[in-house]
Amino acid sequence: MRTDDFDYDLPDELIAQAPAEPRDMCRMLVLHREDGSVEHKVFRDIIDYLEPGDVLVANQTRVMPARLIGRKPTGGAAETLLLRRREDVDPMGHVWECLVNPGKRLKPGAVVEYRAGGAHAPQNSPVVLRATVEDFVDDSRGGRLVRFEPCGENAAGVPRTLDEAIHAAGHVPLPPYITQYEGDPEKYQTVYAMKEEHSAAAPTAGLHFTPELIERIEEKGVKFVTVELEVGIDTFRLVEEDDPTQHVMHTERYHVPAEAVDAVRAAKAAGHRVIAVGTTAVRSLESAWEADAPAADPAVVARRFEDAPDSAAVSGRGDIVARENATTNLYLMPGSTFHVVDAMITNFHVPRSTLMMLVSAFATRDQIMAAYQAAVEERYRFFSFGDAMFIE
């Protein structure tokens, strides 16, 4: 297995520069793993592929205004992308793991100032945030530990908090291949995203859902539950090693609540499917599988799921367990085993990425590459704002 095995040719004009309107009218390629056949639908047709008793599990993380564009004391522009707080370095939460640009010039000790309004701020706009690079992260390709300090006062006349300063200076970051979008940044958030902002990128498979579609799905008897995985650094880094097994996944924080665990257990016990909305939901669920955990008793789980979500009685071995504030570096590639997920909603991914390897592990590489070729021929729209794929 080589990284080149997960490469493909994509015309630039097929990279989506804006979301579909309405969200659920994007196209959807359905891949049937049993025989490798494909169908061409629109996303709202997903309801036809769901059965009463199935469980949809989505990542409810919200994207933070993580893109900061400021200036060094010399006047040169500098860009910082917030990835995750590093409480292990600073319990107060002022140190973040970031990507910086230009990476070669932002070495430990470098200072950057950010003004209210961010990239479009006039020169007389006040400085609201100051950053000091403290250390490299793993390598010198742009990963840094950066300490941030808020500056000045907010509208109430009291010193700004760090979060207030980040919101004053920051923008929701779009992937670098989206170069033409000037619309509502809320379109890069899912309709079910939580209020707290924790991610550097959106769980884009969920962008296709509307409140009305979710309501119709639930009316059909399908359970809709959420987990959270804080999307981080590996969304922005492709696999550079020729041997993909040598690629190191960075850790991301995730949460799988008891409600989601009980819903998954009940669906499995009744012979229904667990359908992950996006690769981040897949990684959350599979990371929460514990091979040595006692397996839940199906009768007890089903009864408790009907009454109220609760911790189920257990027997046997191997089970999904609730996770709170846990971390994962799970790397799924061909040869990996999926213990929880039975079907997957996803987007079309960047070549040579860990996400291409994940979907190739869930189906087969040959099926995925054939499906992608069909999508190119049918002029599907690719990547974050692009069309959807349902793998069952």
UniProtKB/TrEMBL annotation:
Keywords: Cytoplasm, Isomerase, Queuosine biosynthesis, S-adenosyl-L-methionine, Transferase. One of its GO terms (molecular function) is S-adenosylmethionine:tRNA ribosyltransferase-isomerase activity. GO terms for biological process: tRNA queuosine(34) biosynthetic process. GO terms for cellular component: cytoplasm. The keyword Phosphoprotein does not apply. Belongs to the QueA family. Gene3D superfamilies: QueA-like. It is found in: Cytoplasm. Transfers and isomerizes the ribose moiety from AdoMet to the 7-aminomethyl group of 7-deazaguanine (preQ1-tRNA) to give epoxyqueuosine (oQ-tRNA). Its EC number is 2.4.99.17. Pathway: tRNA modification; tRNA-queuosine biosynthesis. Monomer. InterPro entries: QueA, QueA_dom1, QueA_dom2, QueA_sf. It comes from the Bacteria. Pfam families: Queuosine_synth. The gene is queA. It comes from Collinsella tanakaei YIT 12063. This is S-adenosylmethionine:tRNA ribosyltransferase-isomerase. It catalyses: 7-aminomethyl-7-carbaguanosine(34) in tRNA + S-adenosyl-L-methionine = epoxyqueuosine(34) in tRNA + adenine + L-methionine + 2 H(+).
